[in-house]
Amino acid sequence: MKELKRTTDLFSYADKRVKVCLRKMLRRMRQQQNRFIAGYDELNELSGIRQAATDLYYDFNVYMQDCLRDIAKYYYKAANDDDLLWDMWLSGLLQEPLPTTGYIFREELSRKRDRFYEEIIAAASTGKKAEKSAKIKKATEKALNYASRQIRQVADNVAMEALTKGYNDNKEVEKLEYVTQRDGKVCEECRANDYKIYKKGEQPYLPLHYNCRCFYIPVKNKKNVDNT
C-alpha cells in the first residue's frame, strides 16, 4: 500500500495521466480536421463526415478508457495491495451516473459525438472552402474542449472511487480522516469536514460536489471517531 501524502500531490498522478490522454486526443483531432473537409468537398457525401466523426469519438473513448483504467489501478493500489478485475469494475462504474453531474460517461460521450457531427455538417455546408475550413476548425476545437472537461471530471471521480474501494477492501484500515486541500478554494461545506475521522464505510461520499478536491487518508491508533 502506497503512503499517500496529505497534500495536493494526491491527484498529481491522475492529472498527469489526463494530460497524456489529452495530448493523444489533440493529435487525433488535428489528423481528422482535413478528413472532415475532404469528406464534404471531395467526396460530397455526408457519410464521409459521419464516419470521420464516429472514428474520432471511438478513438477518444479508447484513450479515455485506457487513462481511467490506469488511474483506477494506481489509486486502488494506494489503498490496497490486492488486484481487481479492472475492466469489469470500471465498466460498471462508468455505466452509473456521476454523482456530481448526473451524467453517464458513455451516454454523454455519445451525445457529444452526435452534437459534434451536426456542427461539422453545418460548418461544411455553407460558404467558401476557406470559410468552411475555419468553421470546421472551430467546431473541432470546441469538441476537444468538451471532451477535455469530461475526462477531467470522470478522472477525479474514478480516482476517488478506486481509493475508497481500496480502503473498504483493506482489512487493516478501520478509520479514515477527511482531508481538504486547505487553501483559499476550499468551500465551507468541505472545510467543516476537515480533520474529521470516520469509521470505514460511514464516511461521506467523495467527491462531495463538482470540482471537489477532498480525499481520505487511513488513520492509525486514533480514538476519537466523528460520524456526524
Briefly summarize what is shown.
61% of the residues lie in helices and 6% in strands. The protein contains six helices and three strands.
Number of helices: 6
Mean pLDDT: 83
Strand order of the largest sheet: 2-1-3
Query: How many beta-strand segments?
Result: 3
Major sheet description: 3 strands, antiparallel
Keywords:
228 residues; mainly alpha; 2 domains; 6 helices
Description:
With 228 residues, this protein is mainly alpha-helical. The chain has 2 domains: 8-172, no CATH class; 174-228, no CATH class. It has 6 helices and 3 strands. It has helices at 12-41, 46-79, 86-94, 105-124, 129-169, 188-193, and strands at 175-179, 197-199, 215-219. The longest helix has 41 residues, at 129-169. It starts with 11 loop residues before the first helix and ends in a 9-residue tail after the last strand.
SSE topology:
Elements lengths: L11 H30 L4 H34 L6 H9 L10 H20 L4 H41 L5 E5 L8 H6 L3 E3 L15 E5 L9
Helix pairs in contact: 1-2, 1-5, 2-4, 2-5, 4-5
